[in-house]
């Protein structure tokens, strides 16, 4: 519900200094770069074939464990 709190936690983990304004700016920039697509399995249609094979090679087991296949 609050993306800036997630960004704050991500920045806090490695000890990166941040303020509310910094975390909100980061959350806004992340949204501008890659808007969330909440449709289940949409990654399969947005990857080209070579990228899909590479992704499955590296993350195939996790995809199966999370029941995304």
3D architecture notes:
By secondary structure, this protein is mainly α. The protein has four helices and no strands. The chain has helices at 3-12, 20-33, 43-46, 49-65. It is elongated. The longest helix is centred in the C-terminal third of the chain and has 17 residues, at 49-65. The chain folds into two domains: 3-33, no CATH class; 37-69, no CATH class. Helix 1 packs across helix 2 (20-33). The two termini are 27 Å apart. The model has no long low-confidence stretch (mean pLDDT 81).
Extract low-pLDDT stretches: none
> How many distinct helices?
4
The total count of strands amounts to 0
Mean pLDDT across the residues is 81
How many domains? The number is 2
Please outline the major beta sheet.
none
- As a percent range, the share of helical residues equals 55-70%
Give the termini distance in whole angstroms.
27 Å
General form: elongated
Strand content: under 5%
Q: Summary?
A:
The protein has 4 helices and no strands.
Keywords:
69 residues; 2 domains; 4 helices; 65% helix; mainly alpha
Protein topology:
Blueprint: H1 3-12, H2 20-33, H3 43-46, H4 49-65
Helix pairs in contact: 1-2
